[in-house]
Amino acid sequence: MTTTLPALFVPHGAPTFALRPGAAGAAMAAFAAALPRPRAIIVASAHWDTAAPRVGSAGRLRTIHDFHGFPAPLYALDYPATGSPEAAAEVLEVLRAAGIPGEADAARGLDHGAWVPLRLMFPEADVPVIPLSIQGHDGPRSAWRLGRALAPLRARGFLPIGSGNITHNLRDYALAQREGGRTPAYVRAFADWLAERLAARDIDALLDYRRLAPDAARAHPEEEHLLPLFVALGAGGDTAQATRFHAGIDDYVLAMDAWAFGPATRGDRA
User: Fold this and answer.
1) Is 51 exposed, middle or buried (0-12, 13-18, 19+ CB in 10 A)?
2) What are the residues facing 55 on neighbouring strands?
3) N or C: which terminal CB in the chain sees fewer CB atoms within 10 Å?
4) Is residue 12 predicted with pLDDT exceeding 80?
5) 221 CB-near residues (< 8 Å, 6+ apart)
6) Phi, psi (5° rounding) for residue 5?
7) Is the pLDDT of residue 265 over 60?
8) What pLDDT score does 270 carry?
9) How many angstroms separate the CA atoms of 150 and 261, rounded?
10) What span, in angstroms and rounded, lies between the C-alpha atoms of 11 and 166?
11) DSSP label of 183
12) Cβ-Cβ contacts under 8 Å for 139 (sequence gap 6 or more)
C-alpha cells in the first residue's frame, strides 16, 4: 500500500548553502530521512521560470551550475539524479486534467534551486526527480493552482517539493553587510506573518500577501522565490495541515523556514 506523502517547501539559500548547510540543512536532511521512500520527486524551483509549465522528462538530469563568482568547490559538486519519462508523463496528465497546459522538456537538468536541497535531503540520488517550472509573472494564485493539480500524485508516491526562500532581497544583503551584519526587522516579521496565515489556513490572505503582509515588496522585490511555497501549499491538498520544521535566517536577509503540508508531523504544527 502506497503511503500518501506530504508536499514540502524548502529553502535553497545562497549557492554556498551546498557547502555550509548549517541548521537548515540538518533539519531538511532529518525530515527527509523520516519519510517513506518516494516513488518520484517533483521539484518546482524558483530558478526555472517559463511562460507556461514545463515538465522535465529526461532520463538522466545534468547538474546545472547556474551561478557565477562563487568558490571553486561549488562548481565541482554534482548530483547524479535520474529522471523518469513515465513519471513525467503522469505529471503532465494531472496538469492537463486540471486545465493547465504543460509540455515535456527532455533537455532540462537541475538548477541549484533543485539540486542543492535535494543533495542534502536525498544524498544517494536514488529517487527519480521530475523538474517542474514556475511562472514567475503569473502570481501566487496561478502557482497555488499548479500545486493543487499535483495533489492527487501524493497518493501515488510522488513527493512534491517547492524550493525558494521565505524572504529574498539580495540588495538588502549588501546593505546588511555595510551595517554590521544586522538582519532587517522585516525578515522575521514577514516570515511570522506567513506562519500565522498558514496556521489559520487563510488561503485568501496568503494569495493576497502582496497587499496584506508587512513589507511584502521588500521581502520579495520579485515573486519567483516565494511562488514555490504556493505550489507546495496547493499540492498539500485542501485539508492539509501546515507544519514548520525549521525556522531560521541565513546571510542576514534569507529566511530559511521549511514547511510540510499534509498529515500532521513533528514541528510547529499549524
Assistant:
1) exposed
2) 104, 132
3) N
4) yes
5) 169, 171
6) -90, 160
7) no
8) 46
9) 13
10) 8
11) P
12) 223, 227
The amino acid sitting at 71 is: P
CATH number for the segment(s) 7-269: 3.40.830.10
Cell numbers for 247 = 525556522
At 84, list the grid cell: 523518469
CB within 8 A of 39, min separation 6: which ones? 2, 87, 127, 128, 156, 157, 158
> Could you tell me where the DSSP H helices lie in the chain?
22-33, 72-76, 85-97, 112-121, 139-150, 170-178, 185-199, 203-207, 209-212, 216-219, 227-235
Could you give the CA distance from residue 221 to residue 68 in angstroms, rounded to a whole number?
Answer: 21
At residue 3, the pLDDT reads: 84
Residue 41 near residue 158 (C-beta atoms within 8 A)? yes
